[in-house]
Amino acid sequence: MQTESYVSFQPSFDIFFWNYSFLIIIGYFRIKIILWDRL
What we know:
Keywords: Membrane, Transmembrane, Transmembrane helix
Largest sheet: none
Transmembrane segments: 15-35
Structural class: mainly alpha
């Protein structure tokens, strides 16, 4: 029962993790471009 709930929880966690890392990468490049424009 516990492993079954873990397996059903895993895909949603993977989607959340990839969306979060994707937002971090976009924010990093956006800050990098802003700093590059200032230089």
